[in-house]
């Protein structure tokens, strides 16, 4: 319970006990005693801290909250904010909801950090840029729950940077997997890209993955056994131009050359999905409603297919995706903003969000109650999913590489140039 | 040079030959007026002096003193977990230092000019008094702003506006180009600092990892081609269209004109986004083309590979360039038609009549009389529209925001083949927070535009072109 706070206080106690230890070894027992007492006071002081905060608060507390513009989000967030305000009847809250698309959250916040929302919900791939710009408040302590105990370790870790916690885990379902229509495709068909494209060609339908996008492209190269990691200075290490990389690129090029294979952006995907052309596609929970409506009782989802590299079946990997609630480092009321962020990410709130949006909770208790084909598919994919840690120079070269693969222009030279761009030094 | 010399010579003379009041106004700027019983003017001048000095020392000096480093103290915060309050150190904000530093310098320059002018004015007053001329009262001064000094009244607001929204931002942008303001150095949390001409060197460098030089040349060439082609095609098209509508045999002239003007009525934003969807790789135009066999036709004549499953209207270099220009013709012609209609109606009919009598046919009349006349009238606005097209963000960005390049060297500097300098700049700032390179590109764009307009304007308007035409 309240581990962060405890550990912070422990550090100071240990400093004291270290001095004590210098003086005389015999006095070790009292030092240990004092640790215990601190722990008790620590528990009391979380409530004290909130009580102090309430006492120290004068006038209206203004908090801006930015979250996704979708109706589901806006409705459920409105309700949660009202519930939060109702918890503290002595304080007058003015919580304003803003609608900002999650993909643009980083850009909007960084436009003017000081004027941006106090609390905002963002996907994990923006964490690094936000931390780099100094826009996120470190989660130095927690008051109403301890995420290390209530949330899955992977999500807590994903919200850390340089060993510091910067975000409150919110959802754990922002990765990608394969949606398919089980009335038209069998389990064997969706097991590998080769089978999938062959079957789709036979049916005269479409399958695919947005290949000209670094986020998805990573899955193929990682699955083949290539690596992409980030250095401390935000430049990247990438070995996609080695033999395996070339083989993977050629294999993907071979798959993409199928008439049935498409690389749609989200808009085109939705349009063609509604036309009934797309029978299987790599996407995520944000499209869960579109796919379930389009496929009706054939709606199904599974882990990503395998693909053949050098004659060997390789499981396509993926980025696991999370959403976090972040507190602005320049928030007007840091204390209340942190409490709101905690409230929005606790077990009951996550459950409410799951029910409203279908997004999988990061809280283990809420996750246990959640079940859907999409979340099961994500769980199946999770062992092949990696946390996204990649420097900003990755995206444009990767997008261009994906486009080259789609156009059948793969060569050692293209891969060399792409790797040069991805690994270019950061000043 | 001589003018500058005289400027300071007058100043020296004023101090040397001025009486006690002039010399006093070296310290108290209103003194020269108090001595001549211009109390109100003296008070205002002194108040102005106090205000400006107070703002320089009170507001700008702290920033200006840090201009050389752009700040050294980075933001640090300590969160007290018990009181839930945050304490933040007194940190430097590089952006504000730069901005207030520039404004401060401008204020000082303006103040020095005011100071020198003030001494001269008080000396002039002394002379007028010695010569026994009437000195203006405060009421006279006020009245003069309505009469002989009316131009000052009129120009104050516009020149303030120019300084505020043109000069300060331009200076600011120029300065940013010499700093390392990028995603790793973002104020207010982090500091940025001066790096000299490194960014300019980068813009003209081409290596495997730094491809700005490679991308820059290609983007610049396409920008210029685009600007000239876009202007020329819409201009010619507009005149021809206006000519057709104006033709004596055309019926329902009003209706035709209205039809074309309706395209102006729909916001460009909407039309362009719609067109970019329609011409997309999976858009409605592509579906149509593959259904009626145009796709196969293109394959047969070798414009497309056999493996292509769509026409890359907006997704492959060459194709995209042509589509952009064609779409721009469609979007831009109605404007030019309106302009041309007005001009065509005013062509002196005597010239056309006499040409007809001399036996000139319609084409000769169009090329020898109508075109030179229209060109002469619209010359300056044509140059202006070339400049506007260099910075034509809307058409390019809205049509190609989905464009993905296959050219790795372009991609490595976040550019693509259909980027104009301005869309490239936008992507660098908006998506990559690379403000330093964006500023460098901004400066280059500015230089290109300035050079182009200076060159063409001096050629077109300079000399006695008017006489030649008449």
Automatic annotation (TrEMBL), chain A:
Entry-linked InterPro entries: SBP (IPR006059)
Gene Ontology biological-process entries: maltodextrin transmembrane transport; maltose transport
GO cellular component, one term: ATP-binding cassette (ABC) transporter complex, substrate-binding subunit-containing
Domain of life: Bacteria
UniProt entry keywords in alphabetical sequence: Signal, Transport
GO MF annotations, alphabetized: maltose binding
Signal sequence range: 1-18
UniProt keyword annotation of Transport present: yes
Family: Belongs to the bacterial solute-binding protein 1 family.
Database matches in PANTHER family: MALTOSE-BINDING PERIPLASMIC PROTEIN, MALTOSE_MALTODEXTRIN-BINDING PERIPLASMIC PROTEIN
Protein name per Swiss-Prot or TrEMBL: Arabinogalactan oligomer / maltooligosaccharide transport system substrate-binding protein
Biological source species: Pseudobutyrivibrio xylanivorans DSM 14809
Classification lineage: Bacteria, Bacillati, Bacillota, Clostridia, Lachnospirales
From TrEMBL, chain B:
Residue ranges of every copy of the ABC transmembrane type-1 domain listed in the record: 220-456
Molecular function (Gene Ontology), one example: ABC-type maltose transporter activity
Entries under CDD domains matching the protein: TM_PBP2
Domain of life, per lineage: Bacteria
A Pfam family assignment: BPD_transp_1
Coiled coil: none
Protein name: Maltose/maltodextrin transport system permease protein
Protein source organism: Pseudobutyrivibrio xylanivorans DSM 14809
